[in-house]
Design brief:
229 residues, six-stranded mixed beta sheet
């Protein structure tokens, strides 16, 4: 038997970490469309398959632990050079404290620049421009717990079966599971919402030094980030 690989389920997807399921749920709460591992590219460090593609925002979101490594950042850079699509990282440990989701970070790395946006700041924008239900759904789904609230029998069974497969067999199995799910999501995809339009705009302007500075200080939300204006 190979090493035990825990698999976490989210809406029939077999995800590789509990953090990925939390970010998927947070995206759902905000009405942001996503596809899971829809593409792989060859990078200087081998095959790279980013976690989420946000089609209405035209960007990738890669979920990591405390901080992405230099190799992971280089892989993301190679993906962006190949596709022209920016790659954002979500990392840290979002934790509910004093009414906010603190400790989580969304980052974008370009050459020697790093743009960072905290989950607390994102929550403030949601609270200011959207309704309380969306805000608390974002908080509930994003908060860190010591372990998942439960691991169902399906996750345990899938994890056991995964441990019987080689790495290549596991990748092929996951692709066969996710490809039809992604196809269905694409067919049922709604038009871009205001959050997605704002993300697409920000992603398209990341080479603008002034906008990068604004992003670093979280000021781009002042221009009706979540409104239709």
């Amino acid at each position: 038997m190979n090493e035990w690989r825990t698999v976490f389920h989210h809406n029939s997807y077999h995800m590789r970490s509990y953090s990925e399921t939390r970010w998927a749920a947070m995206l759902d709460a905000l009405g942001i469309a996503w596809l899971y591992e829809p593409k792989q590219v060859l990078t200087r460090h081998g095959i790279y398959k980013p976690d989420f593609y946000l089609p209405n925002a035209n960007l990738y979101l890669e979920v990591k632990g405390p901080h992405p490594t230099s190799i992971e950042i280089e892989k993301a850079h190679d993906l962006q050079e190949t596709t022209g699509i920016p790659v954002f990282f979500s990392h840290g440990r979002p934790t509910f404290f004093d009414g906010e989701l603190r400790g989580g970070i969304i980052s974008y790395f370009s050459n020697n620049l790093a743009v960072r946006f905290t989950t607390a700041r994102l929550g403030q924008l949601i609270k200011s421009h959207l309704d309380d239900k969306t805000y608390w759904s974002y908080i509930y789904n994003g908060r860190h717990t010591a372990s998942p609230p439960y691991i169902n029998a399906g996750s345990v069974a899938t994890s056991y079966l995964s441990s019987l497969l080689s790495r290549a067999q596991l990748e092929q199995y996951l692709e066969t599971q996710h490809k039809p799910l992604n196809a269905i999501k694409s067919l049922n995809q709604n038009p871009a919402g205001n959050i997605e339009k704002a993300l697409q705009y920000a992603g398209s302007k990341l080479k603008n030094a002034q906008l990068i500075e604004m992003l670093c200080y979280g000021r781009f939300g002042s221009k009706s980030l979540f409104s239709s204006k």
